[in-house]
Each structure stands twice: as structure tokens, then as C-alpha cells.
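Input record (Table S2, row 538):
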Amino acid sequence: MEDNTGYSILRNPRLNKGSAFTLEEREKYGLQGLLPEAVETIETQIVRIHEQLDNFSKPINQYVYLMQLLENNETLFFKTISNDPVKFLPLVYTPTVGEACQKFGQVSRRPRGLYLSIKDKDNLKKILKNWPEKDVRFTVVTDGGRILGLGDLGIFGLGIPIGKLVLYTSCGGVPPEYTLPIVLDVGTNNEEFLNDPLYPGLKCKRIRGKEFDDFVAAFVAAINEVFPKICIQWEDFPGVDAIKILNNYREKVCTFNDDIQGTAAIAIAGFISISRSMKKRFIDQRFLFLGAGAAAFGIADMLVKKFQRDGLTEDEALGQIWMFDVNGLLVNSRTDLAEHQLQFAHDLEPCTDFAEAILKIKPTAIVGVSTVGGAFNQQVIENMSAINERPIIFPYSNPTSHSECTAEQAYNWSKGKAVFASGSPFAPVEYEGKTFTPGQGNNVFIFPALGLAIFATEAKRVTDDILLTAAEAVAKQVCLTDFEKGLIYPNVADILRVSENVAVKVAEEIFNSGLASVERPESICDFIKSKMYVPEYK
Ligand code: NAD
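Output record (nicotinamide-adenine-dinucleotide complex):
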């Protein structure tokens, strides 16, 4: 039932222009009387958005306002966000989106996306066809099992795919009509939700094991059948499931996991740009991880590939990477190591003191992925400073309270020598009259650009080489003047330009590796540009 009356056009977020409809359009669609007299430009509308937003003091209320704008006028929403990413990214994504998910039942009005219940396992194709768009290219999918640092939020985790896809469009130029947020409802272990009569998801404990695996398999098959050009981005699944799902499907369909691969790529982008700023070869860096879990392996696996790309053998690469977990240094004599940990264990006597391990191994960089706040203590930083002119200190655990050290500690204890980047944001630090700007490994420099390149080339797979290319391309965007200010990542204010440049390099890699489904264009740069969404009224 197609309804093209002015009234329904005003209520269609993709078509609505609000007060920007011209007099001719008002006449043509029967909009007279439904809008006030003035015909406004999108710039005037944005001024009003900022004013209305200022009426709300709490970020969560600003989030609700912005999500309503998305449901009301998509073009205006994306133009507003893209014009000022530094202001809006924290409102539409982390940290505000975490609270939004926790309160999803109270704050969401008309969330865009699909809820796929495990009960509908055999009916998924039919349900996917209920989505109004017929050519979907990108889905971000979660099971709500481990939302940011907030744990199990069940179907309220849908806020994360919604937010992430907003970033694909506003920071990477992926057209919004090709994106689809999905939550897989497999129950929840959140007791509060299970006892809440208003929780609208499946009221049972999380279904796990074979039944869960079969549901994921049915989902992957169904979505690839209904949307053959789809790329699936897995988001915020609990660690073990995340690794298993990625390994099961990465060779079979176009898919990746941003928590694992995006995080690894942005960390490596940081190491590459630091090496450049130090005028040091990447292969001369030596890494010691505190923590040997999912995050450590994601980063370490990609580091091995980077070392190999730069000329080392696999064995030489592994020799540059050390790990230290809750039971100490990973050494060959340990009998408690899991299969996947063995390759990172080396021949050395056992050691259970991290600061001491630093003096033995002499890393140029320490990477904190242990979840233990404060684990990089003064002795750790002082030992790193004793053996390195510029010690690289990367506490990557989230949230801030779990960060292995603060930026202030790293700069103070290293007497201003540390090169610092963290998982959670830290404010600039003054040390002896100099201002240091801490880096934050923000995946937003990776996934929107990757998404744009995949969308444009209709890539068949997402390989580690593709992600490494993205990492290298991000590092290239950092210029000398940035280094002088202590910056190792590009500026978020430039995100669209950075994403475009990164997407060009990634697309080149996709064409070179034979993974594109479209013909190689004469100019990849022009090709990428031509595919980017521009939030303008048509
Ligand atoms: P995990 O539970 O898989 O691994 C934690 C590791 O830390 C384990 O190897 C454990 O032995 C070790 N550990 C715990 N206590 C320790 C101690 N006192 N001393 C030394 N080692 C100790 O967790 P994870 O998924 O790898 O995440 C780790 C941290 O990294 C989290 O804070 C998370 O926010 C952050 N992070 C994770 C990801 C991801 O993809 N999983 C991405 C970015 C950041």
C-alpha cells in the first residue's frame, strides 16, 4: 500500500525534509498547512538542532533527542553528525550508547532494526524479508551477551548495532539504506531482566551449545540468501563465542568482528605510527602483553602478520611477542597453557613478577589487556623507562577503572618519556610545563572505512591482509605536526576525510587480492568518492 501523500512523506525519515521543502514541493505533494510558512536551508535547521539539544543537560536525553531526529529526518540527522563528529560521536555512540542500552526499554521510541528470536530459527528468511529494503549490504549483529563493559543486556543490546551503523554512515559514508541493525535473541542471564515484566525479549536463560551454534548457522545462511551481498559484522558477543563464530565463518562468507579485528587493527595502526615518529623500523619493536585472553590474541595474531609483511619469518615474528597472564610469563615449561597460547610461549625460566619480566625481555612496548586496573604500577613504568628512550605504554583494558594505568601516571612515572595510548579516553596531561595528549585506540578510524571499501567493491571476504592495510592506511594519515603534539592517531574531527583515504587503500587491496565482485575502476579514488553517501536533500 503505497501512500505518497504529503502527510506520509513528512513521516518517512528518508524522504522528509521538514521546513526545507520548497514551495514547489509543498504544492506538488500537498504539504501546505502541514508546515509553517518559512522555507529553511539545512544549515538553518542544524542551528535549531543545536539549540534544542542544549535544552538537555544529560547526554542520555541528548541521545534520545538525536535518535528521534534519525527517525524523523535521516538527512538532517547525518548532516548534523558529520558536521561535528567530535561533539556528536560521544552522544550517538560510546560512552552514551552504553547507558542507552541499559535503559533501552525506557528510552527507545521506534528503534530501527530486526529482532531475530532463536524460536524462529526455521523461519528466518521470511522474517528477514519483512525488512523494507531489498538490497542490504551491511549488518551489525549482536546477541547482547557482553555489551561494552556492561555485561548481558539481552535484546536491549540492539542499541549497539544501531549506534555502530550510524557511524558507518556518518564517519565512513556508507549509505544508510544499505545498513541493517540486528539482535539475535537467545535469552538473557540478566536476572533483573528475567524478573522484569516489562522486559520484552525471550524470558529464559541464554540458550547455549549446539542449539545456539545451529541458530547462528541458520542466521548466516538465511541472511546470505536474502541479501547475497551482505557483510556481517559481529558485535559484543561474549569472548569465546566471538572467536568461535569468527573462525567458523571468516573463510566462508564476508564477515569480521570489530571487537577482535578492529581493535587489533587500530592498536597496530598506533604502533606503526609510533615507529614512524621514532624513525624506527616496525620489526625492531618488541611487545610484552599483560593478559593473554581474547583481546591479546586478536592483537598478537595481527602483529605476527604485520611482522611477516615487513619481512620476518613466522618464527622470528613470534619471537618478538611475549605474554604474561594471571599465572605469570608464558614459558614453555608451563603446563597450564591452552592450545592457542602455546605459540606465544618461549624458552625462559618462569617469572611471576611483571616488572621483573620487563627487565628480562626488554620490550619496547607493553600492552595491557588484563582487565586489572592499576597493574602498570610505578615500578613497571620505571623499568620500561630504564630500558627505552621512549617506552610505549598501551593500557587497553576498558572501562577507565580497568585501565592498567592512567595517562597521568604514565607521563609522571616515565618523566615525560612515555608514548601513551589507551582503550578508554584520558584528558591531556601537563608535565613540567609541557602538555601531552594521550592517544585513544578508537576503532572508528577502522570499521567505517573498511565498511565503505567493502560496500563499494562488494568484497567476498574480509581477510587479515585487508585489516592490516586499513591499519597501515590509518597510520599514514598522521602527519609530522601531529607527532610533535604527541598524537599517534588522526584527529576525529577529520574522520570523513581519513575514512575516505583509508577506504581507497583498502579497496585497492580488495581488488589486488581478487576479492572484489565489481570490475576494477580506472581511478579507485574517484570510485570510492562516487559511492559515498552525502547527506543532502534531493
Ligand atoms: P579475557 O578475560 O579473555 O582475558 C584476560 C586475561 O588477563 C587473561 O589471560 C588473564 O589470565 C589475564 N589476567 C587476569 N588477571 C591478571 C593479573 N592480575 N595479572 C596478569 N594477567 C591477568 O579478556 P579480554 O576479552 O582479552 O579483554 C581484556 C581487556 O581488554 C578488557 O578490559 C577489555 O575491555 C579490553 N579489550 C578487549 C577487547 C576484546 O576484543 N575482547 C577489545 C578491546 C579491549
